[in-house]
Amino acid sequence: xxxxxxxxxxxxxxxxxxxxxxxxxxxxxxxxxxxxxxxxxxxxxxxxxxxxxxxxxxxxxxxxxxxxxxxxxxxxxxxxxxxxxxxxxxxxxxxxxxxxxxxxxxxxxxxxxxxxxxxxxxxxxxxxxxxxxxxxxxxxxxxxxxxxxxxxxxxxxxxxxxxxxxxxxxxxxxxxxxxxxxxxxxxxxxxxxxxxxxxxxxxxxxxxxxxxxxxxxxxxxxxxxxxxxxxxxxxxxxxxxxxxxxxxxxxxxxxxxxxxxxxxxxxxxxxxxxxxxxxxxxxxxxxxxxxxxxxxxxxxxxxxxxxxxxxxxxxxxxxxxxxxxxxxxxxxxxxxxxxxxxxxxxxxxxxxxxxxxxxxxxxxxxxxxxxxxxxxxxxxxxxxxxxxxxxxxxxxxxxxxxxxxxxxxxxxxxxxxxxxxxxxxxxxxxxxxxxxxxxxxxxxxxxxxxxxxxxxxxxxxxxxxxxxxxxxxx
Length: 474
Ligand code: FAD
Ligand code: NAD
Hints:
Blueprint: E1 4-10, H1 16-25, E2 30-34, H2 47-52, H3 54-73, H4 88-113, E3 116-119, E4 121-125, E5 129-133, E6 139-149, E7 153-155, E8 168-169, H5 171-174, E9 183-187, H6 191-202, E10 206-210, H7 222-234, E11 238-240, E12 244-251, E13 254-261, E14 264-270, E15 272-275, E16 279-281, E17 314-316, H8 327-341, E18 355-357, E19 362-367, H9 370-376, E20 380-386, H10 391-395, E21 402-408, E22 414-421, H11 424-436, H12 441-446, H13 456-465
Parallel strand pairs: 1-2, 1-6, 2-3, 6-17, 8-15, 9-10, 9-15, 10-11
Antiparallel strand pairs: 4-5, 5-6, 7-16, 12-13, 13-14, 18-19, 19-22, 20-21, 21-22
Helix pairs in contact: 1-4, 1-8, 3-4, 3-6
Bound molecules: flavin-adenine dinucleotide and nicotinamide-adenine-dinucleotide.
């Protein structure tokens, strides 16, 4: 096999594998180096997202949602089922099957696009060479005119609560519990804490979430975060804000935690502890000393607005660089970089990246919050509409939440859309399109939305910006 390529990508997560496929589509000879091994010890392409992130978490969220609905919500429809049970090995095996389907799918896509995969740890050497070290220590060196670094991220570990993979776990561990923990503590009420906390709560675990910050979901719109906090509380998630973990000790009967909150020192014993306090760029062992590629204080690879590192032919994308740690952000950077390399015009609009939290109800937003606009001194107006007044949501018995549209006070241009409610992970796409095309609230208000659909909530919220919503008082 030739060891010379046009492009080498290090990392086959959603940033790297997408970059590799797009570069190959553009006629370039591409290699992709990745070290991730699946449960069978074989190469599993797709990175964090496909193996232990986006996809498996959504599989478990969906199974647990079905179980929760069966045991809590179906009676309202006149449906009852006695002795509903969930078999955890089947529940986990279904998730594993989905993971395998998708990681195998990336391997098929590589084959179809003639991307050469390498299984091992890649290290950038000076002169755009990449040393690949296989699990058995065997080394080979390949080279390319362009190297794209897409090494992703790993969970942040707390020094006093080290992961042991069994009792104190990260996201991967919490996707693979052999049984429903009786008591699960989670450090961090962020996206992972809320999504995986929801999974195990729905299956019957007592879930206690310890969050250091005093505000709940500080990066979300304040009104949306308030509804979310109320709904999660109703579901029984015990979220302790302004609480700092001081100690986590594994003993025979579980993990003994000591944390402090406004009332002083607290003690808690749980069966399992999930630490979900954020992720850090994974650049360990990625760069030889003399490559010239710079890391910032958070070990992220420094890049310009075109994801170029400043070293000739070396680019970086995804969780390993600045910006939100989201799969779709990394994928778009991967496409853009492949296009820049091929002499085309790549493009990523950071202002319209959608954020979604896949809880029940779901949260989704894009653009600015009211708080950000106030801080920036931008004049704005808002319109909102509750799902309680949406026929489809009521028919589904899921009439919780609202959509809020924020538009510029003078130009009416949409500056942000914030939602909580049924299906909002899908509804946000319409708003992103409108924002991408520099649309106004009036534009959304004049678009015909099918009746009865959840999307009418977006329509009514846009109408409400100008105080002319039809199905509520203005
Ligand atoms: P990664 O997916 O981390 O992939 C990097 C790959 O590079 C890995 O396979 C790694 O093994 C490999 N690698 C690293 N260094 C080397 C090296 N030196 N040599 C060879 N290989 C190397 N995002 C969303 O948008 N939506 C979601 O719903 C969502 N859910 C998530 C749920 C969980 C539980 C977690 C943990 C994350 C979730 N994310 C979600 C975040 C998402 O997974 C990441 O943003 C995304 O995976 C980043 O893609 P990436 O390609 O930059 O890196
Ligand atoms: P996060 O940044 O979303 O949340 C971490 C939380 O932990 C924060 O609220 C933070 O204040 C808190 N925290 C930090 N240190 C703490 C401490 N010592 N004690 C108590 N609380 C502490 O991070 P995450 O939930 O670990 O997720 C990591 C990344 O993965 C996210 O940034 C997100 O981009 C990505 N992700 C995305 C999705 C999605 O898009 N639906 C799902 C899961 C993960």
